[in-house]
Write a structure and sequence with these properties.
By secondary structure, the protein is α+β, with helices and mostly antiparallel strands. The protein has 2 domains: 181 residues, Ribonuclease H-like superfamily/Ribonuclease H (Nucleotidyltransferase, domain 5), CATH 3.30.420; 69 residues, Roll (SH3 type barrels), CATH 2.30.30. The chain is 27% helix and 26% strand. It contains 7 helices and 10 strands. A 5-stranded mixed sheet has the order 3-2-1-4-5, with helices on both faces. Strands 9-8-7-6-10 form a 5-stranded antiparallel sheet. The chain is elongated, with a radius of gyration of 20 Å. 37% of the residues are buried.
Length: 278
C-alpha cells in the first residue's frame, strides 16, 4: 500500500489487559468514506474471565457491565463480516491489531489480511508533540472533546486526529507514515510447540475434550484440576495454556512449565463458561 485509502475502518478495542493473554471487552469502529462516517459498530464483549481491577480503573468496564454481553465467539465473526476487506486504522494499531488477531486464533478463525495503518506512528513523524498518547493529542490540538478509554469514543478521537494530520500534511497521508499497511494476519501470536508429554493438551483442544491436570501453583503446592484446553500461546515467561476451568467455570491461564501431568478424559461431560458478572 502506497497511498492512503479513500474508504477504511477506524477501530478501537478495550480489553482485560495486554495481548496475547488479554480478552476483548469492547469494540468500537467507524466505517469512513472520504471524510464522512457511513456506518458504526459498537458492542461490549463478555470476556468469559474476570476483568482485573487495575484494568477496570482505566476503562471503567466492570464484570457487571458485560454480564449480558455476548462473548467474542459471537461478536468477532460479525465484526469481521462488517469490516470486510477494508483497511483498518487505529491509534497504536499494533495493540488493536494484535488483540483482533489473537482472538481469531483463540477461536479458530482465520486472521484476515486487511491492511493496518497507525495514527500513532504518523503523529510521531508529523506532529512531534511532547506526548503522542491519544488523550494528550486531543487536548493539545484542540480536537473535539469526549470520553476517553472507551472504544467508540476513542475511535472518533482517532478519526479526528487523522483528519487533522491530513490538514497539517496538506492532503492525504502517505501510508508509509502510518506503518505501510501490513496485513492484520501479520499481527498473529506466536504459537509454541508443546513437549511430547503434553501433546494430549493440543489433541483435547482440537476435539473439544477435557483434560485432568496435575499443576504446581506459584507457592509450590500441587493441585489436581480439570480443564477444557483452548489454545497455547507464547508469553515472555514461556508458553501459556488457556483453558476453561471446570470448577470456576471461567477461562484461566496455566504456565506450561508448571504442568506436571496431563491426561485426556473424553468421557467427562462438557461444560460452558459462566458469563462474567452473572
Amino acid at each position: 500500500m502506497t497511498s492512503f485509502p479513500r474508504e477504511f475502518v477506524v477501530v478501537d478495542t478495550e480489553t482485560t489487559g495486554m495481548p496475547p493473554s488479554a480478552r476483548l471487552v469492547e469494540i468500537g469502529a467507524l466505517r469512513v468514506k472520504g471524510r464522512n462516517i457511513v456506518d458504526r459498530f459498537e458492542t461490549l464483549v463478555n470476556p468469559e474471565a474476570p476483568i482485573p481491577e487495575v484494568v477496570v480503573r482505566v476503562h471503567g468496564i466492570t464484570d457487571a457491565a458485560v454480564a449480558e454481553a455476548p462473548p467474542a465467539s459471537e461478536i468477532l465473526p460479525k465484526f469481521l463480516a462488517w469490516m470486510g476487506p477494508l483497511p483498518l486504522v487505529a491509534h497504536n494499531a499494533r495493540f488493536d491489531a494484535s488483540m483482533l488477531a489473537c482472538e481469531c486464533v483463540r477461536l479458530g478463525i482465520s486472521i484476515p489480511s486487511n491492511p493496518v495503518l497507525c495514527t500513532l506512528l504518523a503523529a510521531r513523524k508529523i506532529l512531534q508533540r511532547p506526548s503522542h498518547a491519544l488523550e494528550a493529542l486531543v487536548d493539545d490540538l484542540g480536537l473535539p472533546r469526549g470520553d476517553h478509554h472507551r472504544a467508540a469514543s476513542d475511535a472518533e478521537h482517532c478519526l479526528n486526529l487523522l483528519q487533522r494530520m491530513e490538514e497539517v500534511a496538506d492532503g492525504a497521508l502517505p501510508a508509509k507514515l502510518m506503518g505501510g499497511g501490513g496485513p492484520l494476519s501479520g499481527f498473529g501470536p506466536e504459537t509454541p510447540s508443546l513437549p511430547l508429554s503434553l501433546k494430549a493438551l493440543e489433541e483435547a483442544a482440537l476435539r473439544d475434550e477435557s483434560v485432568d491436570l496435575r499443576y504446581r501453583l506459584a507457592d509450590g503446592r500441587v493441585i489436581d484440576t480439570r480443564i477444557s484446553p483452548r489454545w497455547v500461546f507464547q508469553s515472555r515467561g514461556g508458553p501459556i495454556l488457556e483453558g476453561l476451568c471446570h470448577h470456576a467455570l471461567h477461562y484461566k491461564h496455566y504456565r506450561v512449565d508448571r504442568i506436571l501431568a496431563a491426561e485426556a478424559c473424553p468421557e467427562a461431560p462438557p461444560v460452558s463458561a459462566r458469563p462474567v458478572g452473572a
